[in-house]
Amino acid sequence: MSEPMVDTDRWIRRFRPTPAPTIRLVCFPHAGGSASFYFPMSAALPETVDVLAVQYPGRQDRRTDPCVEDIGTLAERIYRAVRPWTDVPTAFFGHSMGAILAFEVAHRLERDGGVLDRLFASGRRAPSRHRDERVHLGDDETVVNELRRLDGTDTALLDDEEVRRMILPAIRGDYKAIETYRCPPGRILRSPITALVGDDDEKTTLDEAHDWARHTTAAFDLCVFPGGHFYLIEQREAVLDRIARQLLGPTCAR
């Protein structure tokens, strides 16, 4: 039975089209996140970097689309949407849940003979490092308290009951997907991996982040920044500089 067609326009957001990119960077949001999280990155990186952002179902302009509560299924659908965009050198950037999705999509790309220039895995322990987390099984307050604790969502939104009802299904679905994910044994990429993490991230220790090295046969490096789980908001300039240098080289970075 053939796979269903994927409407790429539903999955991919391109905030600043680049006519002749040197490289394309596909960005994967965190649990509960949306493509717009990466608008500042798209605006700040050099014009030769064509930044795309994945829009998961169940949020923003895809709010009526059913959520996908399984990482493998979601990765397959994203891969089919992303594959047409890999006609130029391509790298992936994923934060938190997005790092795992980027890893799984990268595996599918390599499985089918594609090449990924680099995977940037941010704010997430290595795929083989499992924690028994069950936020998705809690009530709404449990989910909301987790979001407040991680400080990655505007708390004013969480105080609005109507907004809560609108956004919580997607957030809970994302948490279910990532908390029930188990990395298949021996899943290793051929592309280099850069792991990025905050030095005070309670969701990812430096040791857990360093284990991304076990998931590549190529080069690996670990970049540690001040901050917690959403270190990349406060450290945006330093993070963008690191990305630009690794994508374009030190003489071509911003």
Describe the fold and architecture.
The chain has helices at residues 8-11, 39-44, 71-82, 97-111, 140-150, 155-158, 161-179, 206-210, 231-234, 236-248; strands at 12-13, 23-28, 49-54, 90-95, 118-122, 193-198, 220-225. The chain has 254 residues and is α/β, with parallel strands linked by helices. The chain has a single domain, classed as Alpha/Beta hydrolase fold, catalytic domain (Rossmann fold, 3-Layer(aba) Sandwich), CATH 3.40.50.1820. Strands 1-3-2-4-5-6-7 form a seven-stranded mixed β-sheet, sandwiched between helices. The longest helix has 19 residues, at 161-179. It starts with 7 loop residues before the first helix and ends in a 6-residue tail after the last helix.
A few lines on this structure:
This protein is of the alpha/beta class. Helix content is about 35%, strand content about 15%. The protein has a single domain, classed as 3-Layer(aba) Sandwich (Rossmann fold).
